[in-house]
Design brief:
By secondary structure, this protein is α/β, with parallel strands linked by helices. It is 15% helix and 24% strand. The protein is built from 6 helices and 14 strands. The strands form 3 sheets. The chain has a 6-stranded mixed beta sheet, sandwiched between helices. β10 and β11 form a beta hairpin.
């Protein structure tokens, strides 16, 4: 199933019920005064966050949400029944955006957080409200008011502590599968990961949990829509640390392919998408060293990296497949989040 992290919907709160025109009638009171009641209020529309939901797939086929109208007023000064409120459930981490005003109305960050998105219309007034000393029998009432209606964009952002990024076949999914609960598809072809997937790591140093995010690979011109695009990068928003995977077996002096060439491809695309995410701390993970014939090439090239890229704080030589250096990297991740 496709992963939906954005949706556009239309919401319309209920209309208020009309007021009532009525006069009191009884056996010995043929000309009683007005007793028409007010209309009921239209139902509101609320968004509520739910930790049992982890995507916006429910909105892929339905995009119109309307709450119940208020009921009209009744005689004997009875107010009409209010319309039922409508609660729309969304995952934690959803931004509610008013498309017309181009503003974020609210970010739902906690479970069961409720936000009133559209108010129901007020009920109309019954003729009891128009009685006066000069008008004892008013034939006047007002109609109920329309409820608010809005065009809303839902934007769901996964909340992860740690995320991985890299060119296709850089080995990031193999690494994540070894250290977390995540179960990603692994294969020797482009874009084995086609949607963001969140996994959990148990931090044995402080008995807490670390969330780790696997995302589709980035390629040259992803910012222009190549490959799977860059929309998934918004899920890096809450990440404290990015692990940047490089396939060192691709290093080729003859063709002038060095580590910094591969770093530049991805970071250029990230910078085009969001400069704040581009400046997040990165650790460079030089993967597949078991396939590199001349490791001296790697060492010479690596020494320049920390000087050239200020956002890269550390680099590691590993082989996810052969379990070389994986344990050291894993322990350093736990220590980083134990601060």
């Amino acid at each position: 199933m496709k992963f939906f992290d954005e949706a556009i919907i239309h919401i319309k709160a209920g209309k208020g019920g009309n007021g009532c025109i009525s006069f009191y009638r009884a056996k010995f009171i043929p000309k009683g005064g007005p007793n028409g009641g007010n209309g009921g209020k239209g139902g509101n529309i609320y968004f509520i966050s739910d930790n049992n939901i982890n995507n916006l797939n429910n909105f892929r086929s339905k995009n119109n949400y309307i709450s119940q109208n208020g009921f009209k007023g009744q005689n004997y000064q009875c107010t009409g029944k209010n319309g039922k409120n409508l609660f729309i459930r969304v995952p934690i981490g959803t931004n509610i955006i008013d498309i017309k005003k181009q503003i974020v109305l609210v970010s739902l960050k906690k479970n069961k957080q409720i936000f009133l998105a559209a108010k129901g219309g007020k009920g109309g007034l019954g003729n009891i409200n128009f009685k006066s000393s000069i008008n004892r029998t008013p034939y006047k009432r007002t109609k109920g008011f329309l409820g608010e209606k809005k065009k809303i964009k839902l934007e769901f952002i996964l909340k992860a502590d740690l995320s991985v990024l890299g060119l296709p076949n850089s080995g990031k999914s193999t690494f994540i599968k070894k250290i977390s609960s995540i179960n990603t598809k692994i294969g020797n072809y482009f874009f084995t990961t086609t949607k963001p997937i969140l996994g959990i790591i148990k931090n044995k140093l402080n008995n807490s949990f670390i969330s780790i995010l696997d995302v589709p690979s980035i390629i040259k011109k992803s910012s222009l829509g190549k490959g799977l695009g860059l929309n998934f990068i918004k899920h890096f928003k809450y990440c404290n640390l990015l692990l940047h995977f490089i396939d060192v077996s691709m290093i080729n002096i003859k063709n002038n392919i060095f580590i910094d060439n591969m770093i530049d491809i991805i970071n250029y695309e990230i910078k085009k998408y969001n400069k704040k995410i581009f400046l997040k701390e990165q650790w460079l993970i030089l993967n597949k060293i078991d396939l590199l014939n001349n490791k001296n090439i790697l060492l010479l090239n690596s020494k320049k990296i920390l000087k050239k890229y200020k956002f890269i704080k550390k680099f590691y030589f590993i082989s996810s497949k052969k379990n070389i250096g994986v344990e050291k990297l894993f322990l350093d991740i736990l220590k980083y989040f134990n601060k």
